[in-house]
Write a structure and sequence with these properties.
Length: 434
């Protein structure tokens, strides 16, 4: 009997109902007790197998496809915010790419608000680069609707409401549905019903960007003087990154307003935060970051305010001088306007968004305060002051000796770049044709 008990000791020790039984007690079990315990275990194993099989079967069962034909659609604008520091920019539809747009597409399909992005009549107001955030990004899209009529509601060609019992009197809670599934740093603020011919990209009447920076030793008055040269219609080929790959040939853009304003208390001294606000109809690739970079050079006293006027004179300077743009994190796509649009806000939804932003603000403010206190303590202990390094606002490394912009090496002209692109295109087409 002891031999049989020893054989099953390890097996029995794995079971919770005998985990407290000692080895001596197991060895002294009678034949009847041992058989009884083994049968108990067999029963438990059978129950566990059945449970696992049932759950596995449920997972393997194919979900019944969602019947989009039962619903009409609604053309809407969606306004949302995002903190873009941890994303590879806004645009990007390839799988596995960490972008704002890919997260948005995934959520729209998860919530069954769209069947496919290709059939959703999707358009974006603007696109932001890696690290850039937005407070009021807007897209236009056709979403599934609970209603039979209303502004923006239309009947798809495959509409077939036969299997639908009834229609609701209220629209689907778009913001709630999406925010429940979106990542914590991407949230829908509101939505608006619009006519089917309105396009988020082409019907936006103006766009506003803000760029945040620390005063440091910057001459704000000189920067304000320089910024006024940006206002109006100008050719910005020397103050942007030329988008040659897409054969962009028109680099004229209109800036409606530029301003530089302090935020919060003015007692912060060199640690005072400022915001550069730029409002215009549309913008070029990296235009705001290049504008900010030139203004920082003016603020550092390395360039005169008139440098902006010189760079905008493309007849005098048809080739762009080589210089780095401002860093990405401080840039925010802050607002865009669409005229008379009836934005739908939900108080409960906004409260949740504010709570989430408050939490994020608290975390970052505390981290910022800790770093600032470290700086102040070191300076106080050694009775010294280190000049604020505003050079960190411009990407790349800076040389010890500054070379004025108009004395640097220049890039090729727009015409030369386009000619090279055309030659590459013709060679590629020829190779594909062979």
């Amino acid at each position: 009997m002891k031999t049989i008990s020893t054989i099953f000791t390890r097996f029995l020790r794995m079971c919770t109902n005998v985990s407290s039984v000692s080895n001596v007690e197991l060895e002294n079990l009678s034949k009847e007790d041992l058989i009884y315990r083994i049968r108990q275990l067999e029963t438990q194993v059978t129950i566990l197998k059945n449970t696992i099989a049932k759950r596995s079967g449920e997972k393997e069962k194919k979900q019944k496809p969602f019947d989009f034909t039962r619903y009409k659609k609604r053309h809407v604008l969606l306004k949302f915010l995002y903190l873009g520091w941890d994303y590879n920019g806004f645009a990007g539809q390839e799988e596995g790419v960490n972008t704002i747009e890919s997260e948005l597409f995934k959520t729209l399909q998860t919530t069954k608000l769209i069947e496919s992005i290709k059939t959703a009549n999707y358009n974006r107001c603007g696109r932001t680069d890696s690290g850039v955030s937005a407070f009021s990004q807007v897209i236009s899209v056709d979403l599934r609707s609970n209603l039979l009529e209303g502004e923006g509601v239309f009947t798809p060609s495959d509409y077939n409401p036969v299997n639908r019992a009834n229609c609701a009197k209220e629209e689907l809670p778009y913001c709630k549905m999406l925010n429940k599934n979106l990542p914590k740093n991407i949230k829908i603020i509101s939505w608006a019903p619009i006519n089917c011919d309105i396009n988020a990209r082409f019907d936006c009447s103006s766009r506003t960007y803000k760029y945040y920076f620390i005063k440091g030793n910057l001459d704000i008055k000189a920067m304000e003087e320089a910024s006024k040269y940006f206002i109006g219609e100008h050719d910005f080929r020397n103050i942007c990154k030329m988008n040659i790959k897409n054969f962009i040939t028109n680099y004229k853009r209109t800036i409606l307003d530029v301003s530089i304003s302090p935020i919060g208390s003015s007692s912060e001294g060199s640690y005072q935060v400022y915001e550069l606000t730029v409002k215009g109809y549309a913008f070029l690739w990296h235009q705001i970051r290049y504008m900010a970079a030139v203004l920082f050079l003016v603020g550092q006293g390395k360039e005169a305010p008139q440098i902006v006027k010189e760079l905008l004179d493309v007849e005098k300077y048809p080739r762009k001088p080589q210089y780095a743009m401002a860093i990405d994190i401080p840039l925010v796509f802050f607002d865009c306007e669409f005229g008379d649009v009836n934005w739908q806000y939900d108080k409960e939804n906004i409260e949740k968004i504010i709570f989430r932003l408050q939490k994020s603000w608290t975390e970052h403010t505390i981290k910022s305060t800790i770093v600032k206190r470290m700086i102040e303590s070191l300076e106080s202990k050694l009775n010294m002051h280190v000049e604020f390094n505003t050079g960190s606002l411009i990407s790349g490394t800076s040389s010890k000796t500054y070379t004025p912009l108009l004395k640097r090496n220049f890039e090729e002209t727009l015409e030369v770049k386009l000619e090279k692109m055309n030659k590459k295109k013709k060679i590629r087409e020829a190779l594909q044709g062979t």
